[in-house]
Structure formats: C-alpha cells, structure tokens
Amino acid sequence: MNVDLSQFHAVFFEESFEGLDIMEQGLLNLDLDAGDEEAINTIFRAAHSIKGGAGTFGFAAISEFTHDMETLLDEMRSGRRAVTRASVDLLLEATDVLREMLIAAQGGDTHDQDKVTSTKTRIKTLLSTNGATIQISSEGVPSPGQNSAGQGWHIRFHPEPHLLKTGNDPVRLFRELASLGELEIRADASQLPSLETLDPEQCYLKWELELKGEVTEPEIREVFAWVEDDCLLEIAPIAGGDEPSPVIPSPIEPGPVEETTAPATQAPEGEGERRTGSERRKAANPAEGSSIRVNIDKIDALINVVGELVITQSMLNQFGENSDIDKFDELREGLAQLARNTREIQEAVLGIRMLPISFSFNRFPRLVRDLSAKMGKKVELRLSGEQTELDKTVLEKIGDPLVHLVRNSLDHGIETPEKRLAAGKPETGMLHLNAYHEGGNIVIEIRDDGAGLNKVKILDRAKERGLVREGEELSDEQIHDLIFQPGFSTAEVVSDVSGRGVGMDVVRRNIHDLGGMVEIRSKEGEGSTFTIRLPLTLAILDGQLVRVGEQIYVIPLVNIIESIQVNTQNLCPVAGKSELYRLRDDYLPILRLRRIFNINGEDIPLEQGLLVIVEGDGQKIGLFVDELLGQQQVVIKSLETNYKRIAGLSGATILGSGAVSLILDVSGLVALTRYPPGETRQAWLENLQRQAA
Amino acid sequence: MASILAVDDSASMRQMVSFTLKGAGYEVIQAVDGQDALSKAASAKADLVLTDVNMPKMDGITLVRELRKLPNYKFTPILMLTTESQAEKKTEGKAAGATGWMVKPFNPDQLLATIKKVLG
Predict the structure, then answer these.
(1) Catalytic residue check, A412
(2) This prediction's pTM
C-alpha cells in the first residue's frame, strides 16, 4: 500500500508545536523542590509524542534529538535523577533547539546542525555523568543462533492456560509459521478435562511442531514474540533422521509456574495505584477542557453563511416595519424571534474562532525569565485574565506587538535592582499582563512599576527630530504619544533587547490594522501602562453609515473621533487641490469622498455637509460627507475575492435594503492625502499650515 | 470488514493509522485517550484494538486492563504501540492482557502487515 505520509505533516507540526508549548510551560512551572511527578510526566509525554511522530513521518534528526530529552525526562519522572535548575535550563534550551528544528523541517530547510550537536552533546554529558544510578537493562534477549537448520526445526509450544485471555490465538501463530515453511502440527490433548470441569476460556492443549524449510531461529522466535512470556517454548534444529532431537533449553524459557502467575496477582495492586494516580491528576487539573481542531476555512464559510442569515433577517425586519402592523403581530413576533436566534447563532459561530489569550500570554513567562536574567533585573511577571477569548486571527497578529511592548517594559521601564532600591522601591519589579472584555472590545494591559516615560527626554528627542517645534506646548498625553512616531527612540544605548527604535510605530500600525488602538498612561518614577483595545472579531465591525450623493459608505466606528458641521471660517484653501480645516489647534486635510470615488453629481457646499474626523496611522483627516445615517454592525465581505483591491476601501457589506455598501479603509484614505515625493509628511503638513496661516 | 479501534492522543498518528487502515478496507473507530476508547469500546465492538501507551487521562496499559474486564473484549486482540526505549512497557502491557505490540516508528506497510497477521 502506498501512503503518502506528507499529508499528515501539517497536523504533526501543529501538534508538535503544541507539545513544545506544553513542555516549555511545564518546565517553567516546575517546582524544583516539590518533585512534581505528574508535571514531569506531562512534559515527558509531550516529548514522547513528538519523538514518535517525528520517527513515523520521516524526521529522523528530530526523533533522535528528542530521544535524548526523553531519556533525561524519563530518569527525572522515575525519580532516578534529581530535578535540578541546571537540568531544567538545559531542557528549556533543548526545547528551543527542537522548535528551531521543527520550524526548519516545516519550511523544508535545514536546521543549524552545530547548535543541535552542541545541545545534544550537553544532554548526553549530563546523562552519562551524575546520571542514572540504575541502568535500564536492555531487553534481555540474548542473541539467538543465526544459523538456519537445513533440516528444519522442532518446536515445543506449551502455552499457559491463560494465553487466550491475552487475545492470542494459537491458530494465528501456526498460520504464520506455515507461511515460513512446511509445518506439521501435533496437538497434545492429554490435559483436556472432562466436559463438566472444562473452562472454555482456558487453553488446555499443547503442541509439538515441525517446521521444515530454510527458516532461521530468529524468524521463528519473531512469530512467538508476543507470547514468549505466556508459554514454554523450545526450538531445536531437527537432527538427521526422524528421531526428535534432544531439546535445547531455551534461554528465554520462562521459569516455573509460580513465576508466570506472579504478575497476575500483582496486577490488581498496580491497578489500584494507577487509579489513585489518575484521580490525583484530575484533582490537580480540573479546568482542563477538551478542545476541537477545526479547519479555519470551514469556519470562515460558516461565518459567511451566518452573515447571510443576518442580512436576511435585516431584510425581513424592514418588511415588517413597512407593513400594516395590526395585521402582522405574529409576523413581528416571529421576526423578533428570528432576530434573537440569528444573534445567538452568530455569537456561537464566532465563538468557534475564539481562543483564550493564554495562547499568547504563555510565551511571556519564558521571555521575561530569559530577558530579565540577561539584563540583570529582577522581575515578577503576573498574568491575569488569561481565559479572555479573542479571535484566532487577532490573537495571532497581536503576538508580536505584545512581545515588543513587554520587551520595552523590561528594557526601558523596569529599573535595575540597585536603582529601584535607591528610589525606595522593592528590588523586584512588577510586570502585569491583564486581559478583559469591555463593551464589545477586548482590552489588554501591559503594566509595569518601572521608571515611567521620561517626558523631558522624549521632548528633547522630538525637537531634535523636528516633530515638535521649540516653545510648543504639549499635554502629557501628546508627549507620550510621540513615542509612536516612526523612527523615534530615546534609548541612549541601543540594546539587542528592544530593538533600535523602529518598534513603537510598527506596534501601533499592527494594532490599527486589527481595528484596534493603543494608549499610554505613565507617571515618572511610578511606571507605565500600555492599554490595547481590540475588536473581538475581524468578521464583523461596528460601522457608521454615511451618505455621499446616492451612495452609502460604512466608516469603522473605531476610526471616528468626532463629526462636526463645517464652519467656513475655519476652512483654509491652499495651493493645489488640498484643503485644510482648522480644528482647534490642529490643521486637518479634508478629503471629499465624492471626488475620491468619482461619484456623479456636484459637491454640495461644505457648510451644508458634515466633516467626519477620522484617525488612521496616527494621522487625523476630515472626510466630507453629505449626511450621517445610522450606526450598525456590518458583516465584512472581501472586495478582493469578489472584485479587486481598491485603494481607500477595505471591503464591502450588504445593507438591510439589499444594497451593497463599501467599507472605508481609513488608513488607506490617510495615505491618499498625498504629499510631494521627497518631502516628509510632517514637512508637507507644516508647509501647508504655514501657507494657511 | 473488520473494525479497528485506534487509540492515540497524537492527531497525526491517529490520522496516519486511520487513513492506512481505511485504505485497506477496515472500519476505523478513533479515540483520543484511554477514557475515550473505553466509552467507545462499550458502544461498539471492535475486532481489534490498537493503542498508544503514553496518553493523558488514561494510559494504554490501564486501557488494556479495563478492556479485558468487558465481556466483549475478553479475547479481542489488543496491540500496543510502544517505542524501543520503553521495553518495560511491553512486559507491563502483556501482564495487563495485551496481545502484542508494534514498535514505533512504523510505516503504513508494517502496520498493515501486523494487522493482517492478527486478523488473518
């Protein structure tokens, strides 16, 4: 049978990475003094599964590498080796190497052999030195004679009465032997009791067999491999002549009967122990829920279908409102029901995609442990709200920004123990990651009790970079916000921990791309809190409907700051097509949607329309629309898959009326407020402002 | 055709085993650990059980012992999937009532050969 094993690779990698996470988590939480047997067992099991899978699916190097880790873990769990800090560190390091090997194998690349060899050597050294006090005896199978007896073999097979209860059928053994050569079977039924006393579950027969042909003894032993402990087995070459040869005692011949029955009497005891073991396991980990692995494509399809349902419901709803209400009481009731059901289905289906944020948080104990050690800082990491759920896609994309913020807090936020003591703070710094739901959003906080943002330093740097003019008055918030500017960094020493000042703007952009936002609260000497707000899902968004001519557009509510009526006094027409609007102390470019999207009809005078102030990529612009309509949740349909990608639009949706409405991509629109090439946006804006003034 | 209860906590192993066996015409019941297997065994009689040893909730050896207590599984062949490094598990499994074992890693051909050997 030809089975293409590569079809199972994706699942193998997925579960191996999960296994790695379990190992890493387990190793980090391992209490060195308590000798937690079950914790080590769990780590061992994960390693064991990776090894088994790797071997099966053709990743020999991974299997071999994991084997040594497994051996070390096995010695630990059986109590033959003490669980020391050093060995846990080595295992953690090995987990990293293993992860790299898996990533390389997944991408079809080669791994860093030197690193692998070095780690492997260190594990082997550990295994061989203060290692196991008890050596595992290798399988006690002595090398049997390799010679094949030209004449054939005489086999004496006297099974124990309980043989059948192990599911082994002598007929199967004979069938296999017969496939090796010419088999002659003689059954000895002398032990067969009378019918009254016969126990049909027992085996009373004994057999003498003669197997002729070119067969080796190991081949025969292989056939009996599963039953060799449950029988008396003698194999001897047939000597010349027909006389049965003297029987050669087999080296693996089991001892007398007492010995073979011994395991049977031991079994119940062992069972008792095992039970209590599993009970303990259950008690220790009550929250362990079962999980499903569902193909994301299927779920996306399901979400789409439910989206249609939402649209249908919305259509029906309109019908209900426009009809003679007195006659349609029941219809209205039914509609209400449909609305409720639809919402429930939608919530349930979206829930399938939701994963607890612990998937993302789990990497931080390790990260914080390693980084703080590297930087000589003492940091206590607190995680809370790990069970808060969010969309899988959001979860995957928020990982990197979170890592960046945590690194930043460790690097720039929390001080060294000396500085902390000098400032009258506890030596150990606190880093708190917290997640919770708030009004349809998920909020993630990264809070440290470090030095806080240094406003003076930030302002100096901002002036140096021309982001702030001399003498300009900025609020604390505005100053804090400066660190999100591209290329901004106040780090005096560029460390390899938190990058080179190219991070925070990327962090903010990533979060914005997810439809979220990030805020800073910071107090010098007391610490900083970064608050990230994200939508629960990317499939649905809260939108503001706006009308431009005949067209209705959706603006994501998260981007909208405010909507204002145009006061012509604040209009600043400038050179070219650009228009600026003075809003308090800020000058905002005005974008007329009618012009951007080439909508038929004349622009209405500015003072008759509305300016929707939106923010994207940290820049504010004013979108000029004819009218604000209602706010509603819309199901996002991809424009790319159904039509093509268009600048300034992120997708489309279908309204209750059945009309298609386009969803604005605010960041894309901000980018459309073009400025001449070679000039920075900041310089361009300043230039415009000067002209306006 | 004979039905086989395949027990493994590793999804990739389960898929491989199940795909191979189904391809050879066997009916396959999958279970993710010993407990799952035990409840599935109670509702459907399998002609052969193939079980991993290291599993959460209930390991393979306990599963063998529990299965042997069920009237329907007294004589059913039960094969354990062990690794070379776990020689002691074979003995332990045998004592619990396992029929035999297969050593991991194995390829689909080896798996089918063993199953055919047992089921005839």
Answers:
(1) no
(2) 0.50
